[in-house]
Structures are given as structure tokens and as C-alpha cells.
Amino acid sequence: MKKPEIHLTNEKLAETCKDAAKTVLIIAAFTAVAMSLSRINNDNNPFAPTLYVLAVALVARFTDGFFYGIAASLASVACVNFFFTYPFHKFNMTLSSYPLTFAVMLLVSILVSAMSSQLKKQERIRFEAENEKMRANLLRSVSHDLRTPLASIIGSSSLLLEKPGLPAQERSKMLLEIQKDARWLSRVTENILSITKLSSDGVKIATTDEVVEEIVGSSIVKFRKHSAALPVEVKSPDEVLIVPMDATLIQQVLINLFENVEVHGNCATRILLEIRHESSRVVFTVSDNGTGFPPSVLPKVFSTTMISSSENADGHRNMGIGLSVCNSIIVAHGGQMSARNNIYGGATVEFWLPTGGGEDEQQAEDPYSRG
What we know:
The chain is of the alpha+beta class. About 60% of the residues lie in helices and about 10% in strands.
């Protein structure tokens, strides 16, 4: 029972240190700006109090609570008194304007802190409302989508038990259907667990450096265990690409995209996965030669509203769950996902993951052309 308390204490300490650092940096930055202006104009910078009022407002906006804003007010008044009031570089507590300056800065910090707290509270309420709506949509969708495969499994298994004398070919066909529906149910369960986990406030992805080629190969092997209907062609650069990621979640993304083509890519005969290295990120492009996304679906294909949409390609497999999960996973990794229809037919879903390096990272020219 003590571990969660320790974890929360560490998080609170980290936030406190972060807010304190923000306060110090903002006040220091505005002090440097004010002193630079004094040197340029060769005066005592009569605009320094105004600059510090802005500094106090920024501290109050980007920190939690009233403490840091009040501390910034005290520090700002002290800086104005020490650096920009005669006699310079000495404190003069007898100035008639001193109480007024302090009162103005204190009032600004309290007002901005109060407004910031209110805004943050409204954002949390809106976030919780959106999460609640998403969960409700998910439950409605799941209850609808699971009905058909469950009924199929129950019906087929009951028939097999009631009629043990069925021909071997028919028995084999029914067992394959049961296996297919059971595997789909397993995949949906994984998606549900992932989307509910990633929608929780404050969830952070634990990443490790992974070789992209290995993750892609493992994803294709797992996809082919479920279905050998569509071949997956891979085009990748010769260089070894290493990306920080949660390997299990990225595999889930790739498998979901492959299965989405299989289930919803009407008339698709192949899947093409292209991988390329662009500066400090690796881009994955999954495309097919099917009929593409319906125009009405494309603008909201990654939205949680798709989860409750009735515009599905078949009676029991909802495209919205898988793609919403994929998008949530990629965003949690610090990347982005997009979708489009191809000019010559089919659809393309593209996402990128940051490599963790900067612009000075190894930049190899793509060994293949998309054109």
C-alpha cells in the first residue's frame, strides 16, 4: 500500500521542482532583458516594472497554485528596487512607490493564478467528459460488435456437440470459423485494454530502443498466423533503424492496420509497408489496392466517434476501434498518424515515430523512391 504513496510523492516533488525552476528562469530572463535595455538606453529603465509585471503574469500562468506567483511578485519588486531604482545595487525601502508597486504585482499574480486555475479545472472537466463519452461509445460498440461472433461461436459449437456424425469437411469448416471468430475476439480485447489504458490521465509509455526491422518482421509473422489471405510486401532502407518504442504496442498498431485492410479493404489483393528515415523520425506507410475509405468516414477515421459509427464494412467488425487504438498508441509515443485515399485506388495509413535524435543524427538518403 505504501508504493503508490511514494510514487505520488515523487511526482509531486518533481512538479514542485519544475514550477520552481520555471519561476526562477522567467524572473532571471526578464531581469537580463531589463538590464540589457538599461545598458542600451543608458538609463535606469523606467519600463522595468512593466516588464516584471509581465514576468509575474507568465509565472502565474505556467505554474500551479498561488505560491509561485506571489514569490515572483516579491522577487520582481526586489529586483526593481535593487537594479533599477536609485541608489542602484542597493535596497531602498523608503520609496513612496514601493508599496504600490508590490501591491500591483501581487494583485496581478493572484488574478492570473486564479484564472489559470479555473482554466485548468475546466480543461480537466472537459477531458474527463470526453473520456466518459469515449468509454460509453466503446461499450455500446463492443456490445454490438461482439454479439455476432459470440452467437456464431455458440451456434457452431452447439451444432458440433449435438451432431457428432457431421462430415469431416463440414466439421473442419465450422471449427475454422470458430477459431477465426475467437481470434478476432482476442484482438478486440487487446484493443479495448489498450484504448482504456491510453485514455487514462497521466499514462506514460515506457519505451526501449528497438530495431524496426525486427518489430515489422514479428508483426507480419503474427498477422499471417491469423490469416494468410493477403501478402505483405515490405520496402525499407538498407540502414539499421533503431527507434525508442513499446514493442508490443507498435506491433499491435501494425497488425491492426494489416487486419483493417483484410477486413475493410474491399477487393484488396496486397498490402505494401514502406519504411523510410526522415531526419529525426522513422515513417511507416501501410497502403493497399482496395476501394479505399468511404469519403464520409475519412475525415473522422481516427476519432473516437467512429467507435459508435454504424458505417461498418461488415456486420460485426468495427473499423473505429482498431484505428482509434492505433492513433492513441502513436500519439502516446510522440508521433502522428494520418490517412488518405490513393489516387489510383486503395487507401494509405501513415504514421511516424521519433528516433530520439536531433538534426545532427545520421541522415541517410532513401535507397528507394516512392514515385
